[in-house]
Each structure stands twice: as C-alpha cells, then as structure tokens.
Amino acid sequence: MPTEREITGLIPQWCPGCGHYGFLSALKKAIVELDLDPANVFLVSGIGCSGRISHYIKVTTFHTLHGRPVPPAVAAKIVNPELNVIAVSGDGDAFAIGISHFIHAARRNADITYVILNNMIYGLTTGQYSPTSLRGQVTKTSPQGNREYPIDGVKIALAAGATFVARGFSGNIQQLVDLTKKAIQHKGFSYLEVLSPCVTFNRIATYQWFREHTIDVNTIEKYDPTDMILVLKTLADLPRDKIPIGLIYIDTTKKPFHEEILKDPSKPISLLDLDPSRYNYEELLKGYV
Ligand code: SF4
Ligand code: MG
C-alpha cells in the first residue's frame, strides 16, 4: 500500500484519531469501488480542518474560501456535467457563513454531493462553539455553557428540497462507504452529513457519545426513505437525544439543475469551441447598443 505521502506528497496534518480520517478513507474506497476516473472527480473544500481534505486525496481538487465550496461545485457541474462533483465543508463552514449556498443549491437540485464533516465545534481555531454545538456545552467561547440551540442539517436539507439526504458516522466506515457511493451516484443534490469527532477540542461528542446517541433509521420497521411523510413522522417521533443516521430520504423524480438550464446538456460548455477569434465582437456589441 502506498503511503499518503507517496500518493499526494503530503502527510495529513489532522490529529491522530480525528474523525476526518474515517471519511477520507470511505471516500477513497467509494471512488475505487465505483471505478471513477480520479481526474473526473472534482472535490472542492472550504476552510477548517475539514478543508484540508482536498490536499490528501489524488483527484481534481480546489481549496476555496470559508463557507464557499458550494458555488464553485455547482458551477463546475454546469460547465462540465461529466464530472463527479463533491463539495466538503465543516459544520462552521456549512451552517454559519455558508448556509445560504447550501439551501439554494439544495432547492435547485444541483447535481453535487455536499459532505459536511460535523464535529460540533470549530476545531481549526482550537475549540469555539459552532452552529451544531450542543446547548449547554462548555467551550472556549461558551465558558458558562452554550446558550444557543444546535442546527439540524438533515431537517434543513429536507425543507430546502434536497433529493438525497443521509447521515453517516466516521466510526462506521462500512456504512459510510455505502452512503458515499449512493450520494455520488444520485442525480441531484446529495446531502451527506458525517458525524466526525474532533478528538482534541470536543470532549462531549466523542466516538462513544455518537455510538450511544445515533439510531440507523433503516433499522426501523417499515421505514421507507422515498416516503416524505413517513420520513418526517419518523424524525419527529424519535427521542430528542437520538440522532438519526443512514439513508434518510431519496427522491429520484426531479431533474438535476444543469439539465434544467443547459439548452443541450449533451454539449457542455467545457466541450464548446470558445476560440475568441471565431467571433466578431463588433457585430456582437451592436446588439447591445
Ligand atoms: Fe480533527 Fe479536531 Fe484535530 Fe481538527 S483539531 S484535526 S477536527 S481532531
Ligand atoms: Mg467543526
């Protein structure tokens, strides 16, 4: 097996035991098992410990600004629909500064896989409370306990119109590989949240805590991820201290965004001959004056 350094020229700087290793491993397995051409996998990451992932995998990557991996991901898919596009955020990146991008990409059914590595803390900046930190949680910025209620990204994804909604856990790689493969294969907006412990700065949401507080919805009798009413009822009926994981919702009936807006999706912009010398700009400009 080649080492990380031999593959990418870099050694991951994540702390030993960080949950993000689990998703990185699941993503690599998913890409291999789906037999995807790494050059055709476009991975965009934002800022935070999660954002480092674009340096640790040998696919086509782009490490962008805080909260902004979704817009370039959506644009890349429109320009070249042949790409398998994956955007990766942390919980701060996705649910604080970047939340509007997430909601609008979901309602447009942009054909990207949006992965949120949720460790319920700001890890890179050494332990401030994030939008998913627990109420009452003591952090560097909430020494007397967090006074805010956490965001539930799954419920936002469902309300925004995401056509694939799943949640996995870095401590269960086998399930994560399966969910990642399904998310990549889905034609439309795939929301994949990964519960990914920050072993250094979040002493509450540990591997053990997630094991005790998660429930795989697919183990619930007669659960059907294609039935929105049943999905919402199941989520509403769960005990307050349980976090649903697994394939939560899927709808394969909506067209992806690029097919809605491209005149001819079989002739993507990336394949057009855009040689400027072929166009008479003086003539084009006349149309605007
Ligand atoms: Fe992972 Fe937390 Fe270390 Fe960042 S600070 S690498 S999230 S364990
Ligand atoms: Mg975080």
Write the layout of secondary structure elements.
Blueprint: H1 4-8, H2 20-33, E1 41-45, E2 60-63, H3 70-79, E3 84-90, H4 91-97, H5 99-108, E4 113-118, H6 153-160, E5 164-169, H7 173-185, E6 190-195, H8 207-213, E7 214-216, H9 228-237, E8 243-250, H10 257-261, H11 281-286
Parallel strand pairs: 1-2, 1-3, 3-4, 4-6, 5-6, 7-8
Antiparallel strand pairs: 5-8
Helix pairs in contact: 2-7, 4-5
Bound molecules: iron/sulfur cluster and magnesium ion.
Q: How would you explain this protein's 3D organization?
A:
It contains eleven helices and eight strands. By secondary structure, it is α/β, with parallel strands linked by helices. It has a single domain, classed as 3-Layer(aba) Sandwich (Rossmann fold). The protein has an eight-stranded mixed β-sheet, with helices on both faces. α2 crosses α7 and α4 packs across α5. The model has no long low-confidence stretch (mean pLDDT 95). Magnesium ion binds next to α4.
